[in-house]
Amino acid sequence: MGDQLDAVLDHLPDFQHGLVVTLELTAGGTVLMFILAFTLGLASTSPAVVVRGAARVVIEFFRGTSLVVQMFWLFYVLPQLGVEISPMLCGILALGLNYGAYGAEVVRGSLGAVPVPQREAAVALGFSPVDRFRRVVFPQAWVQMIPPMKVLIIQLLKGSAIASAITLVDLNFQGEILRNATGNTFLAYGIVLVLYFIIAYVIEWLMKGVEYLAKHRLGLVDTAWWDPRRRMTATPAPAGAAPSAPGGSNEGPGGLRGGDR
């Protein structure tokens, strides 16, 4: 047991390199995923049949084929066609293309879930198409996109483990090296398991922060717990008193005050 512990301690610095490779794959794949998700998701809602049809073909192709096959195709087939790309770029492309296709469906569904009256109100207010999307449609759709996008990022992190098959020395590959050095499979892959969990947990909390900010922008969260000014003014109402409107005013329906009716 002492020899195995010494071997683990000797190989721990090597895990730093594997961790960096895994984080690079995850970060690069996530950036590409978001770019493709928004590009294909918006294109799939286009009124132009050609644009919408082309987007659907790309989405269904990458959703309907295996991530492993896509990664192997980029790494082993492209060089035979005269296109040489690095293993890291192969991994990022495969992860971004595969999960970007799933993300496009998230974007399309979230945009479609924005209530029609919201769009009609923006038209009635004279907003341009760009302003309607930027100020009305996207903020509401973004709140709905975040939870499924968070799941996709974590899935992408776990999918990056297959990059060891294209010669990338990531966390999974470092676990195999440690297993061969110590002969202890449980210990080697236990360390890898914990490291993946920690990364996924950090992503979880980062995306929760993004979701909170998005909801706060729409006024969907109460900020009294952290805003000292609101805590000072948030006094309890007398027993039996009617609740006041947001902002502490006594406005009734239609925005009229009690003395104006």
UniProtKB/TrEMBL annotation:
Q: What ranges does the record list as Low complexity composition bias?
A: 233-248
Family annotation (Pfam families):
BPD_transp_1
Subcellular location(s) of the protein: Cell membrane
Record-level GO BP terms? amino acid transport
Give the record's GO CC terms: ATP-binding cassette (ABC) transporter complex
- GO MF: transmembrane transporter activity
Q: Which spans are transmembrane here?
A: 20-45, 151-174, 186-207
Q: Per the record, which residues fall in region Disordered?
A: 233-261
What membrane topology does the UniProt entry give? Multi-pass membrane protein
Q: Which UniProt keywords apply?
A: Amino-acid transport, Cell membrane, Membrane, Transmembrane, Transmembrane helix, Transport
Domain spans labelled ABC transmembrane type-1: 19-204
Please list the residue ranges that the record marks as compositionally biased, kind Gly residues. Answer: 249-261
Indicate the family of this protein. Belongs to the binding-protein-dependent transport system permease family.
Recorded protein name is: Ectoine/hydroxyectoine ABC transporter permease subunit EhuC
**Organism of provenance:** Tomitella fengzijianii
Upper lineage is: Bacteria, Bacillati, Actinomycetota, Actinomycetes, Mycobacteriales
